[in-house]
Design goal:
CATH class of one domain: Mainly Beta
Helix content: 10-25%
Largest sheet: 24 strands, mixed
Structural class: alpha/beta
CATH architecture of one domain: 3 Solenoid
Distance between the termini: 41 Å
Length: 488
């Protein structure tokens, strides 16, 4: 592992976490003739699986050929220049296509400001945004046509093309030290949300997502073919980056900001590596990274500062999730920092296909605008089996709720698909300041658990809510300095 993220973790959090390590270990004076190691625990065996995720992840590899977009007649300009954005969309795509047809390589976006529209990545192509380059997506909807096969809030449809998109590709990359701006603002893309928080825009009820979202949900439940799911008026915002049914995907080094909707959204893809990415996007639904129904995903050394969940693992909404029946699985999140957001590490709410073998370690979370640390959200319409989730070595400075498992999200009990959340482990967690330790709200006929907490120290105003929790095992849990156990 690179030294920098671990060093940052040590500097920022290990000093605070050290009492936990000392608390767990003690020694006695005298000569030690031999070292006796304790037997390996179930927790040790669980974490052995993490090495397999890193080892088995298939990595990208690109040719040394370079295709500079300038050689394909791309021009620098101002971010709001629509004519230049139209021109550059075509020029960038010519460079990507040429690179692909030549057998692959790097498409280089050099320093400068580059207005653009939606782009389609292809196999063996690395789109590289160089240092001091700004790839600025213009919000004119014409630049995100024709419609493509996409997924929006876990439902498939023919929708606006994501800003950077790939379908059925292999060995693709989005890299560099530059910045990609999605063009979302209080005057473009974001107002389609309608009412939201303090709503810093004038709401035009004729240009909001509600009617289209409701119609799409109806089509999903009716089983309407995806090719026929074309909205009469589309106000469903596209994600910044979406790869669909792809293999060997790399996103590395970039700053991503002002996304219209979700930022990083790999769907039904395998072997996805997201590394050293800085996500700063405070619009509505600006989730930082949402792998949906993916297998083998590594998210490391990233910073998330968002208007919604920092990382949210998903697997489809309602009938669409059950139709495809693909869980999100074998995910490792490590050495990341979470600032503002609805949740740090989140599973759901579009989780009908399930989630399993999700791991997170060495994370720093802290912000007065961070609502939750670990968050699992579902309901009786989503359902889903969430099994084997483990977090360890987590330092949280400030958060509202530490651990949330909520079956009452949105539709709540209004459905026939009871969720199952089991085998959740949290080990070596320190929280300096929280409103509540728990919001655990299950159903009496579908209780939450088992959950296991070990080596946990939390300072909070309240233990919080524990409803319909079947099993919660606690080992060395301190709440406001006092030992705490679940009295179920």
């Amino acid at each position: 592992m690179p030294n920098m993220p671990k060093r940052q973790f040590l500097q920022a959090g290990l000093a605070a976490a050290l009492p936990l390590a000392l608390w767990r270990c003690s020694s006695t004076a005298g000569t030690i003739d031999a070292i006796s190691y304790p037997p390996r625990t179930a927790l040790d065996l669980l974490w052995d699986q993490v090495d397999a995720i890193e080892r088995d992840l298939a990595r990208t590899s690109f040719s040394s050929r370079v295709f500079n977009v300038s050689a394909f007649a791309a021009h620098t300009g101002q971010p709001g220049d629509l004519n230049t954005a139209r021109h550059n969309r075509a020029a960038f795509q010519r460079a990507i296509d040429a690179c692909h047809h030549a057998g692959g390589g790097r498409v280089l976006v050099p320093a400068g400001v580059w207005p653009c529209g939606a782009l389609t990545l292809k196999s063996n192509v690395e789109l590289h945004v160089a240092k001091d380059a700004l790839l600025a997506f213009h919000p004119a909807t014409e630049l995100y046509l024709p419609l493509v096969f996409t997924r929006w809030e876990g439902m498939e449809l023919m929708g606006y093309q994501p800003l950077i998109y790939a379908f059925g590709a292999q060995n693709i990359g989005l890299t560099g030290e530059g910045t990609i701006d999605g063009g979302g603002s209080n005057s473009a893309w974001w107002p389609w949300k309608g009412q939201w928080k303090h709503t810093p825009w004038q709401v035009d009820d004729s240009k909001v997502q509600h009617a289209g979202r409701n119609l799409l949900m109806q089509w999903v439940e009716q089983g309407k073919p995806v090719a026929e799911r074309v909205l009469p008026q589309n106000f469903l915002r596209p994600p910044l980056f979406q790869v669909y049914q792809c293999k060997q995907v790399l996103v590395a080094g970039l700053t991503l900001q002002n996304s219209p909707f979700w930022v990083l959204n790999p769907v039904l893809s395998e072997d996805v590596l997201i590394s050293r990415v800085k996500v700063v996007s405070h619009g509505p639904n600006s989730d930082g990274c949402d792998p949906e129904s993916c297998r083998r995903v590594l998210i490391e050394q990233c910073l998330f500062d968002t208007g919604d969940d920092c990382i949210a693992l998903k697997s489809g909404r309602n009938a669409d999730g059950r139709r495809l029946n693909r869980p999100v699985e074998q995910v490792l999140i490590q050495d990341c920092t979470m600032k503002a957001g609805h949740g740090g590490v989140v599973i759901g709410s579009e989780i009908s296909g399930g989630a399993n073998h999700i791991f997170a370690r060495r994370l720093l979370m802290s912000s007065p605008e961070l609502d939750r640390g670990l968050r699992i959200k579902t309901n009786a319409l989503r359902g889903g089996l969430i099994d084997t989730v483990a977090l360890r070595d987590i330092v949280i400075g400030e958060v509202k709720d530490v651990i949330v498992v909520n079956y009452f999200y949105e539709e709540g009990r209004d459905g026939a698909f009871l969720p199952t959340v089991r085998n959740i482990s949290v080990h070596n967690l320190q929280v300096d300041k929280a409103d509540r330790l728990f919001e655990l709200r299950g159903f009496p006929e579908a209780q939450i658990g088992p959950l296991q907490l070990s080596s946990v120290r939390v300072n909070c105003q309240s233990v919080g809510v524990l409803d319909a929790v079947g099993q919660l095992d606690c080992q060395q849990v301190l709440v406001n300095g006092q030992p705490w156990r679940f009295q179920g």
